[in-house]
Amino acid sequence: MASASRLLPPTPLPAAQVRGSRDRLAVPRHRCRVAAAAAASPTGGAALLERDGSAAVALREFVTLDELRAAVRLRVRTFYEYAVESVGAEDHRKALADREFEALQDRISGKMINFQRVSCINGTVPLSPSLMSAEELCSMCKFVEDGEERVVVGTLDLNQCLWLPDELTGKRPGVNEDNQTRAYLSNVCVAKELQKKGLGYALVDKSKKLALEWGITDLYVHVAINNIAGQKLYKKSGFVYEGEEPAWKARFLGRPRRLLLWLDMSKESL
């Protein structure tokens, strides 16, 4: 399952500065805070099991730049398809990942004016024998933390902002920039090897809890009109239809038409 809102345009600003031996972004603490794992529960959003039940998926805000880069590589792997052994495919993937990695750092560190606050939420698993059959996933989306090799298997961004570039703009709760409590989900994706196991729902659930901590009152997501699996996921998560992209705009941007879905956060609880 992949969201229609993907890989926001990169910015020409330089990458955020890093600090410390663990290579963290130099941003306010609440923007890269670790979330403690709760009891394993596919509906609770804290942990999930792999296919063989051997390991749990930990859900949290990103911690290191190495993890953030792995999340970006998962997005490129999910949103772009390449012909087998196509010329220049790996170079193109790397260029896309590098551009999005730099742009994501800029959004998280507050360098882009429209974005008041951004967090990358990931689902990760330990690198284990049960994942060895997914060789490409492990090689592309692996990172190391405290000496342990882990793999990013799901990811999304929570963006507190007035709008996302090239997307329909939500109407609630208004456009008072001095008191903006609207947020958007973007870059929602799950590794194909772990789809249909509740990970997408758990990621969205985790993002809703963080949105409540931020004081968000209205949460939005865009989804392609032909992405039935994504629409089912968001409906299950409580989102309802608000609007849709005009056909001419979708043709101009060269993509499927998108729906705008809205969630009333006043009905959610931590």
Could you characterize the architecture of this molecule?
The chain has 270 residues and is α+β, with helices and mostly antiparallel strands. It has one domain: Gcn5-related N-acetyltransferase (GNAT) (Aminopeptidase, 3-Layer(aba) Sandwich), CATH 3.40.630.30. The chain has 6 helices and 10 strands, in the order βββααβαβββαβαβαβ. Helix 1 (65-79) packs across helix 2. The longest helix is centred in the middle third of the chain and has 20 residues, at 89-108. The chain is globular and about 50 Å long.
Question: Mind sketching the topology for me?
Answer:
Elements: E1 18-19, E2 24-25, E3 58-61, H1 65-79, H2 89-108, E4 115-126, H3 135-140, E5 142-145, E6 148-161, E7 182-190, H4 199-214, E8 218-224, H5 228-236, E9 240-244, H6 247-253, E10 258-264
Parallel strand pairs: 7-8
Antiparallel strand pairs: 1-2, 3-4, 4-6, 5-6, 6-7, 8-10, 9-10
Protein name: N-acetyltransferase domain-containing protein
Domain N-acetyltransferase: 74-266
GO molecular function: acyltransferase activity, transferring groups other than amino-acyl groups
Tell me the radius of gyration: 18 Å
Largest sheet: 8 strands, mixed
Total count of helical runs of at least 4 residues:
6
Category from helices, strands and their pairing: alpha+beta
- Span between termini: 25 Å
- Known CATH architecture: 3-Layer(aba) Sandwich
Q: Estimate percent helicity.
A: 25-40%
- Taken as a percent bin, the fraction of beta residues is 15-25%
Low-confidence blocks of residues: 11-54
CATH superfamily: Gcn5-related N-acetyltransferase (GNAT)
Give me the CATH fold name.
Aminopeptidase
Can you count the beta strands?
10
InterPro entries: Acyl_CoA_acyltransferase (IPR016181), GNAT_dom (IPR000182)
GO molecular function: acyltransferase activity, transferring groups other than amino-acyl groups
Organism: Paspalum notatum var. saurae
Region (Disordered): 1-22
